[in-house]
Design goal:
The structure is a single chain. This protein has 92 residues and is α+β, with helices and mostly antiparallel strands. It has one domain. The chain contains three helices and five strands; from the N terminus they run H-E-E-E-E-H-H-E. Strands 4-3-2-1-5 form a five-stranded antiparallel sheet, covered by helices on one side.
């Protein structure tokens, strides 16, 4: 991970904290929250000013379940976050 420590990034991910990162010149915004006793996590691409839905969305019983789903999803040209993490820039 460029500009940060992957372990710290993952700690924040598992807590659902807001994370801003860039991959291949596209900024992504990831955040989690709890609503109606369910954990929600969403990933949005900051590609324009119009919102046309989340790039990825998860609703599970725990934030940990959402984080693990995020880490296993092939969201980047059939690659997971683990596959691309060395090319990701953390934009704290």
């Amino acid at each position: 991970m460029i500009n940060g420590d992957i372990k710290e990034f993952l700690d924040k991910l598992y807590c659902g904290e807001e994370l801003l990162f860039e991959y291949e010149n596209v900024e992504y915004f990831l955040q989690g929250w709890t609503e109606d006793n369910k954990a929600h996590m969403v990933l949005d691409r900051n590609s324009n000013d119009t919102f046309d839905g989340y790039y990825w969305e998860c609703i599970k019983d725990t934030m940990k379940e959402c984080a693990e789903e995020f880490l296993h999803m092939q969201l980047w040209n059939e690659k997971t976050f683990a596959d691309i993490q060395n090319s990701v820039t953390w934009k704290e």
